[in-house]
Specification:
The complex is a heterodimer of chains A (546) and B (102).
Chain A: H1 8-20, H2 26-40, E1 45-51, E2 57-64, H3 68-71, E3 75-77, H4 81-89, E4 93-95, H5 106-110, E5 115-123, E6 126-135, H6 143-179, E7 190-197, E8 207-213, E9 219-226, H7 230-249, H8 254-268, E10 274-281, E11 287-293, E12 299-302, E13 305-309, E14 328-332, E15 338-342, H9 354-364, H10 370-381, E16 391-398, E17 414-420, H11 426-438, H12 443-464, E18 468-474, E19 478-485, H13 505-512, E20 515-520, E21 527-534
Antiparallel strand pairs in A: 1-2, 1-6, 2-3, 4-5, 5-6, 7-16, 8-9, 9-10, 10-11, 11-14, 12-13, 12-15, 15-16, 17-18, 18-19, 19-21, 20-21
Chain B: E1 11-19, H1 24-36, E2 44-54, H2 56-71, E3 76-79, H3 83-91
Parallel strand pairs in B: 1-2, 2-3
Helix pairs in contact in B: 1-2
Chain lengths: 546, 102
C-alpha cells in the first residue's frame, strides 16, 4: 500500500499516528487511534491487546467502548479465542457470531457485541499484538473494512515499535546505570581501587564488587559472580548485592551474612547460583574476617614477604545446597599490606587450567598503591584480550604511614556541588569554590587542594570540552573532590620529558593525593575524576617517610 | 650580578597573580615578545616573586618559554621562586631544568 491509494477516511487516521511519533505517549496515542477507528469503521468498540514479552499471553492495553477490558487487565493466551487465533495465525478474522464458542473473553459477548473484526499487529514478522473492532448492530464488516483496519494496524505497529524501543532503551539504560558500581568509600587508613569490565562490550553483567562502611565503622569488601550474563544476571546481582548490604547491617560476621543471603537466594532466586567472597575489618583494618561461598581465594601481599592466596576453604556457592555451615578465616594485614578480591573472569582462559591464571595473578600482585596494582593486574592478565567473562576487581591497601592512627567513628561530611562552563576562567573559579567549600585548612593542605582542583578543572576544560561539575566533600580529616564532565577524553597519567610542555596535570594529582581514580559514568554520561586529600594538620604524609 | 659590565642587561619578565589556563598563553606571548627584542646569549629572567598560584598550565608556559629562548640561543632563569612553586617544580622533576637567577 502506498501513499497514493490511501483513502480519505484513512488519511484522518494516519495523521494521528504521524503526529503521535513526536508528542504523545503510547497510551494516549493508542486511545486516539482507537477513537478515530471507531468513527471511520462505524464501530462501537475498538481495542488493542499487546503480546507481553516473555509470556504466551496477549494483554489488553487500550480500548474504546470496551474500557473494562483494560481495567480488568484481560489476558488472552495466544491461540485461544478470537484475539488468540488472530495472533497465532497472523491472519485477520471476521466474526458474525460472538459468543462463548468463538470468543474467550466474556466481556465481549456480555456487552452484546454482534460482529467483530480483528487483525494482527506485526512488524518484520514479529507479533506485537492484536487490533480489533466490534459492532453492537448485526451489520457485517466488509473486506474493505478489513483492508482498512490492516493498513491502520501496520501504522500502529510501526509507531508502537518506535515508541516501545525508545521506552525500553531508556529503561534498560537507567537500570544498567543503577547497577553499575558506585564510587568507593573514603576510608581513612586505607586506599581502595577497583575495576569492572563486563564481557563482550555489554554495559553490565553478573559480576560485581562492593565496598561499604557500616555505622559501627566496619568496612566490608565483596566480590561476587552471578552465573549467567547480561541484563538478567545483572538484575539478580543487584538484588544479591543489596541483600548482602542489608544483612551486613545487622552486625553479624561474613559467614552469617552469607548464610542469610543464601537462604534468600534459595527461596527467592530459584535456579540462581552465586559465588561470593566477603571480608570485613574494623579500623585500623589489621584483622580481617573472610568467608567464601564457592569463590576464588583473595590474594594477599605485604612488603618483604611473598604474595600468596588467602587460605580460605570455599563453602558451597549460594543457591546450591540449601543451608551450609560456613567457615571464616582471620587474616592479619600489616601496615602497607594489600588484599585483592576478584572474579574468575580475571584468571580463567578457555585453553588453560585455572591454576595457571592464579599463578599469573600472584606474580602480578605486590604491596603497592591499589590504583597501580589494579592497572598492573589488568595489564598482565587481560592486556588487549577481549574478556570472555565479566571481570570485577577490588584492591585495598592499609596505609603504610597512618596505620594505627585512624578515627574510629564515621565522620560527617558536607557536600557542595557547582557546575562550571568549559572555559579557561573556570579553573580559577573552581579553585575558589573548592577552597570555600572545604572550609578552614592548614596552609599546606590549602595549597595542595587549590593545585589539585586546578589540575582536574583544567583537564575538564581542555579535554572534556563540556561544562563540568565540581563536588567537594569535607570530612573531619579529609577532603574528597570529584570533577565530572560529559566529554569522551581519555584520562591517563603521563611521564613527560622536561622539555615537553604538556601532560603533567594528572601526574601531579597522582603524586599529591592520598588516593584518586576515574569512574566511567556509562555510555554518553562521561566520567568522574576524583581524589582524596588528607587535610588534618597533624596528618603525616606517607610520601615523606623514608 | 656576575655578568661583566659591558654586557647588555638581561631581559626581565615579571609575572604576578595566578598563572593558570587563563593566563599561561599570555605569559608565553609576553616572554616571546621580550626575546625578539633581546640579543642572542642574553638570558631571560622570569621573576616569579608576585606569583600567587601556578599549576601545570603554568609549568607548561615556563617550558614553552624555555624552548622559545633556546631557539634564540638564550637561557631562561627563574628569580624569586615562591616556596609552593619551587615544590611543584621539584615534584614535576623540573627543578634542574630551570636554573635560578639569584
Amino acid at each position: 500500500m502506498t501513499a497514493g491509494n490511501v483513502s480519505p477516511r484513512l488519511a484522518n487516521l494516519l495523521a494521528v499516528t504521524d503526529a503521535g511519533l513526536t508528542g504523545m505517549d503510547i497510551d494516549e496515542l493508542l486511545s486516539e487511534v482507537l477513537e478515530r477507528l471507531r468513527g471511520i469503521l462505524d464501530a462501537d468498540t475498538a481495542a488493542v491487546l499487546l503480546h507481553e514479552v516473555g509470556t504466551n499471553d496477549l494483554v489488553a492495553r487500550a480500548a474504546r467502548g470496551l474500557e473494562e477490558e483494560v481495567r480488568q487487565g484481560v489476558r488472552v493466551p495466544i491461540g485461544v479465542g478470537f484475539a488468540g487465533r488472530i495472533a497465532a495465525n497472523r491472519q485477520p478474522v471476521r466474526l458474525r457470531q460472538v459468543d462463548e464458542t468463538t470468543v474467550s473473553n466474556p466481556i465481549l459477548w456480555e456487552k452484546g457485541i454482534q460482529r467483530m473484526l480483528g487483525v494482527p499487529l506485526t512488524l518484520d514478522a514479529r507479533l506485537l499484538g492484536v487490533l480489533h473492532v466490534g459492532r453492537l448492530a448485526p451489520r457485517d464488516f466488509t473486506l474493505d473494512d478489513e483492508e482498512l483496519l490492516q493498513v491502520a494496524a501496520e501504522r500502529v505497529a510501526a509507531t508502537l515499535r518506535t515508541r516501545q524501543y525508545a521506552v525500553e532503551a531508556a529503561a534498560a539504560g537507567m537500570l544498567e546505570r543503577s547497577l553499575l558500581p558506585v564510587r568507593l568509600p573514603d576510608v581513612p587508613g586505607l586506599q581502595l581501587a577497583a575495576r569492572y569490565v563486563p564481557a563482550e562490550n555489554r554495559a553490565v553483567g553478573g559480576d560485581w564488587y562492593d565496598a561499604f562502611v557500616l555505622p559501627d565503622g566496619a568496612l566490608w569488601v565483596i566480590t561476587g559472580d552471578v552465573a549467567g550474563h547480561g541484563l538478567h544476571a545483572a538484575v539478580v546481582m543487584g538484588r544479591v548485592k543489596s541483600a548482602l548490604r542489608a544483612y551486613a547491617l545487622l552486625g553479624d560476621g561474613p559467614a552469617h551474612v552469607l548464610e542469610l543471603t543464601d537462604r534468600k537466594v534459595e527461596h527467592f532466586e530459584i535456579g540462581t547460583m552465586v559465588t561470593i567472597v566477603c571480608a570485613r575489618a574494623y579500623p585500623p583494618f589489621a584483622d580481617w574476617t573472610i568467608c567464601s561461598a564457592g569463590h576464588l581465594p583473595p590474594v594477599v601481599a605485604a612488603l618483604e614477604v611473598p604474595t600468596t592466596l588467602v587460605g580460605v576453604r570455599p563453602g558451597p556457592p549460594l543457591g546450591t545446597v540449601g543451608s551450609a555451615l560456613r567457615e571464616e578465616v582471620h587474616l592479619e594485614l600489616p601496615p602497607g599490606g594489600l588484599l585483592l578480591l576478584y572474579t574468575d573472569g580475571l584468571v580463567e582462559r578457555r585453553d588453560e587450567a585455572i591454576d595457571a591464571g592464579l599463578e599469573r595473578l600472584r606474580d602480578a600482585v605486590r604491596a603497592a598503591h591499589p590504583e597501580k596494582v589494579s592497572r598492573e593486574v589488568m595489564q598482565h592478565l587481560v592486556g588487549s584480550d577481549t574478556p570472555l567473562d565479566d571481570i570485577a576487581l577490588l584492591v585495598l591497601r592499609r596505609d603504610p604511614a597512618i596505620a594505627g592512627n585512624v578515627p574510629t567513628a564515621a565522620s560527617t561530611a558536607e557536600l557542595r556541588v557547582r557546575e562550571f562552563a568549559a572555559d579557561s576562567d573556570s579553573t580559577r573559579a573552581a579553585r575558589r569554590f573548592a577552597l570555600e567549600a572545604a572550609g578552614p585548612l592548614p596552609p599546606a593542605a590549602h595549597d595542595t587542594l587549590e593545585l589539585l582542583v586546578s589540575e582536574l578543572a583544567t583537564n575538564a576544560v581542555i579535554h572534556g570540552g563540556t561544562p563540568f561539575r565540581l563536588a567537594v566533600a569535607r570530612h573531619t580529616s579529609t577532603v574528597i573532590v570529584e570533577v565530572s564532565d560529559t566529554g569522551t577524553g581519555e584520562v591517563s597519567v603521563h611521564d613527560p620529558a622536561a622539555s615537553d610542555p604538556h601532560g603533567r596535570g594528572l601526574r601531579i594529582v597522582a603524586r599529591l593525593a592520598q588516593s584518586w581514580g576515574v569512574h566511567d559514568n556509562g555510555p554518553g554520561l562521561g566520567k568522574t575524576v576524583w581524589f582524596r586529600l588528607d587535610v588534618a594538620s597533624d596528618a603525616r604524609s606517607p610520601r615523606r617517610l623514608p | 650580578m656576575t655578568a661583566p659590565p659591558d654586557q647588555p642587561p638581561a631581559a626581565m619578565l615579571r609575572l604576578s597573580g595566578d598563572i593558570d589556563l587563563a593566563t599561561a598563553d599570555d605569559v608565553v606571548m609576553r616572554g616571546a615578545n621580550l626575546l625578539t627584542h633581546s640579543q642572542s646569549g642574553v638570558p631571560l629572567i622570569v621573576d616569579l616573586g608576585e606569583v600567587t598560584f601556578l599549576d601545570s598550565s603554568g609549568l607548561s608556559a615556563l617550558v614553552r618559554l624555555r624552548r622559545a629562548a633556546e631557539a634564540q640561543g638564550c637561557q631562561v632563569l627563574l628569580r624569586d621562586v615562591p616556596d609552593r612553586v619551587a615544590a611543584l617544580l621539584e615534584l614535576s622533576g623540573l627543578a634542574e631544568y630551570f636554573p635560578r637567577a639569584n
